Amino acid sequence: MSLRCSFLFAILALAVACVPQAAATPLIAYDVPGDTVGNQVWSGSLGMDFNVIDPIVIEALGAFDSGQDGISGTVTVAIYNRQTQQLVTPEVSFTGNAGTLIGGNRFQDITPLTLAPGLYSIVAWGYNALEPNGNLGCNPLNGGSCLGNSIVGSTLNDGGGLIQFTGSARYSGGTGFPGTLDGGPDNRYLAGTFQYNSAVPEPLTLGLCGAALLALGLLRRRFSA
């Protein structure tokens, strides 16, 4: 093969390896199964704590839709830094059939946003008698806001260690960050959730890009010699 052909192949390899590839299918942190109906009437804030271990990109926020028949009223979802209790994502409001239904959750895209390693909570508020939330710790024998049906918890997806579920939940009677700690499990509430991906390129992609750059550099030196 001529030196010129080798140079052209190196440029082609560089283009393939270094051009950003299409994003992987987003992961759902708290994935509620379809046909799930809520078992609690609670209009205040419900939060579940998680830690980011490696940077992630939040692509969409989601809200549990009891019965998957559209959200009655307005449910608001956001992610907070639980150390500063400050918002780190926009507040996204769900009503009716807004968003994309996946299983028992509705999702709305946001401008992709990177979360650095740290301590966070996914929070939702606005559930009501026509749009009950889910609570794995709700006992109908205690009366109050608990309904009589049983529920199955969401499936958790940590992205192979990108995030860590802490086993703690939290609540308050108002809106925004809930300050009162509740017990586990990790997926105690059917309320807010999110879709995410790793913010770090795949090692294979980085390696191919580096190899292509190295080959291109060597060929350039030979051309200029």
Can you describe this structure?
This protein is of the alpha+beta class. It has one domain (24-200): Jelly Rolls (Sandwich), CATH 2.60.120. The chain is 17% helix and 39% strand. It is built from two helices and 16 strands. The protein has helices at residues 3-18, 203-224, and strands at residues 27-28, 30-31, 45-52, 56-64, 71-81, 86-87, 92-96, 100-102, 105-115, 118-125, 134-135, 155-156, 163-172, 180-182, 189-190, 192-198. Strands 3, 5, 6, 7, 10, 13 and 14 form a seven-stranded antiparallel sheet that branches. A hairpin with a 2-residue loop joins β8 (100-102) and β9 (105-115). α1 (3-18) packs antiparallel against α2 (203-224). The longest helix is centred in the C-terminal third of the chain and has 22 residues, at 203-224. The protein is globular. The two termini are 19 Å apart.
Which properties best describe this structure?
alpha+beta; 2 helices; five-stranded antiparallel β-sheet; Jelly Rolls; 225 residues; seven-stranded antiparallel β-sheet; 39% strand; globular
Number of distinct beta strands = 16
Round the mean pLDDT to the nearest integer and report it.
Answer: 86
> What is the rounded distance between the termini?
19 Å
Percentage beta strand: 35-45%
Q: Structural class of the helix and strand makeup?
A: alpha+beta
Sum up the overall morphology in one term: globular
Count of individual domains: 1
Annotated CATH architecture: Sandwich
Whole-number radius of gyration? 23 Å
What string, H for helix and E for strand, traces the elements in order?
HEEEEEEEEEEEEEEEEH
CATH topology: Jelly Rolls
Question: How many helical stretches?
Answer: 2
Biggest sheet descriptor: 7 strands, antiparallel
- Sequence stretches where pLDDT stays below 50 over 5 or more residues: 5-17, 204-208
Percentage of residues assigned to helices: 10-25%
What top-tier CATH class fits best?
Mainly Beta
